Amino acid sequence: MPRAYIVRILAAVWLGAAALYATSNIEVLSKRQSHVAMGCILALDLFVLLRSRAFRTWLWTVTFGQWPIIDRETVREPGEAGAFSWRVLGVLVLCAVSLTIQEYIGDRNYYEHAFNITPWVHYKVGATQWPGVWGVQSPVRYYHELGSFMWWSGWRVIGYVVMPTIFVLAWRGNDRVRLRDVHLSFEGFFKHLWIYVFLFLCVLPAVIYASTTPAFRHTYPFYRLANRSHFDLWTWEGLYTAQFVALEFFFRGFLLQGLRKVMGANAVFVMIVPYCMIHYGKPLPETLGAIGAGLILGTVAIRTKSIWGGVLIHVGVALTMDLLAMRGCPTATGTWCGE
């Protein structure tokens, strides 16, 4: 990748983001005027970025041009492309079952009903002070909220790793998926590390800008007691990281490799549908962004033969989002984030 093009993209992203942020904070502009001005800035930024034909050709090659390459590199018999496949049926049924179980059993609401230790308001007051204050007498109650995230993260590991692994090991036949084929290699990750650093730097301005919005501060960190202690913060981040590793294994490893032999590059497009849907409930821009992120991470995972770049970006972005969000959390340990 030409170094000048990398610098050009990063400059356009960061300068454009700075201009958009400055415009959004001009108080004399009405909301409509601000949106019009921001639209003009975005259009100008794209025009400057894409004005070179050589650059546009290169950009097409490294983005949309990767899907025909994936098709050509897919190892399969001529008659297998687009044909009925028991493997595809099994992979997609397992995907549906896994996501359904996580929605109905692996959700934190299920945990709250199954392990309803104390009424919510009573617990919410007492959870910030332990032991022996406001009726809280044990670490089980003190860490009840953190326990719900352990439940949530644990079920992600079960649904995204354990269930697909059992499927892979149990499946027999010429069309079986092997664990060594599910993009677990670090070789492609280290070789293409610069790509993931570049992608992270492209996303970072949007993360920083989002951290200034009320919707962001009311959503992150998911664990609203992360500011209570270092133990709470880093235990939560460990649980968050574990589910990201599981998520990348499932979407960028198991699903893509399970579907690729029949669907080729189209496996990426199928994968982004459930991947977008698991973001429902988050802020709208993040959910819409998951579509583009799924396309990019899925394509890069296949081309680099590694899921670990996606893990790196997810963990880096998530940790950055949490730390930025916690700037607005009360410094007193007796108060929840967002209050």
Structure write-up:
With 339 residues, the protein is an all-alpha fold. It has one domain. The chain is 70% helix and 0% strand. The chain is built from 16 helices and no strands. The longest helix has 34 residues, at 230-263. The protein is flat and about 65 Å long.
SSE topology:
Blueprint: H1 3-24, H2 31-50, H3 53-62, H4 66-73, H5 86-104, H6 108-114, H7 120-126, H8 139-142, H9 144-170, H10 187-191, H11 193-210, H12 214-217, H13 230-263, H14 266-277, H15 284-304, H16 308-325
Helix pairs in contact: 1-2, 1-11, 5-9, 5-13, 6-9, 9-13, 11-16, 13-14, 13-15, 13-16, 14-15
Short description:
This protein is an all-alpha fold. It is 70% helix and 0% strand.
Overall number of strands: 0
What's the number of domains?
1
Biggest sheet: strands, sense, closure? none
Judged by helices, strands and strand pairing, the structural class is mainly alpha
SS element count, helices: 16
For this entry, give a set of tags.
single chain; 339 residues; mainly alpha
